[in-house]
User: What shape does this take?
Amino acid sequence: MPLLFTHGCETCDVAADDVLIERLLRVIDEGRRTATYKLALLLGLIDAAASSPGSSSLPTRLVAERVLDLYYPQTRNFVDAGGASLLPRQITMKSSPVLRAVERLRLTTEARGGRSSADAARVAPREYSDALDSVEDTFVRYPIPLLQVVGSTTIPFLYEVDWSEGTTAASLRRQGRDQLRLLDGVVDRLVVLGPILRPLIELHWVRDVARWSGIATEDEQLRSHLFGRERAAFPRAFVRDLTDLQDGSCFYCGDRLGKKVEVDHFLAWSRWPNDAIENLVVADRCNSAKSDHVAATAHLARWRLRLETAAGPLRDVAERHRWPTDPTRTWALTQSTYTHLAPGTPLWLHGREFELADGPWW
Assistant: This one.
């Protein structure tokens, strides 16, 4: 029987939440994993849910897009502390059709001047579609129907699947069945739990890759290589153009920016890794004070106004510096985050001052 999460019984809701968390932790901590596919599927589901506020089902194509985004930077060679260069292994078998397809896409994209999976969709649309076909088909065949299997029994705790292992994505699409029907309340719980689960999933992912690739697990560089860095160095010219868009003022306090200008992820990287230009603002010391906190309502209103009125200039800066731009997804992630804030959550105002969340936000 599927688990229900929103049926009006608070005690039952808590119990169902406990079961959901327990099952997620079992998948994450599975010791007999032979590929990172299930971990990629979990992160893909979390990201797809946050990108689709209010949805009760997720297209398998959307989940595949999020998985492709995850694997895209991981097809680059890793240079360890000793200077050795190798391609991190994502599977115990000799090769992976998913990784081969994504690597081909990345090489084609870079040959055409692109840097990211978002660039790939623009500069290599046919190759991007082919790679997405490979990712979607592989995940429809295997990890999606197998993720919720305990022993030999399927016990749904995230979604219902009405196809068996080995089913192709093309056959589902022909029948209009290429959707994951999420159980009641799962989207909400994934959005709330996502920032907590993500570092745990990444930790186990790094350990698997390190073990299969013969890399020291304590090498923090491997984690940065696989999942990126929050405090990445931003090109000076890019920072200068962002500063000009803000008329040389800190986004949060409005003071004039001096020589020390910092780029901040408005929606913290620790919650949703998103380097799209729409999620970036420039700030002074406010950046350190805000840290990973969710910004207060006044900052949210200012950020939302910028998203609506400066879409063109932001896009121009992104194109000039070949930087990712994704206003739709950035808005969806922000909407999901604020919608699911618990009443009383501290929201950063300035310095060491906070307000308490009380919603509604829109």
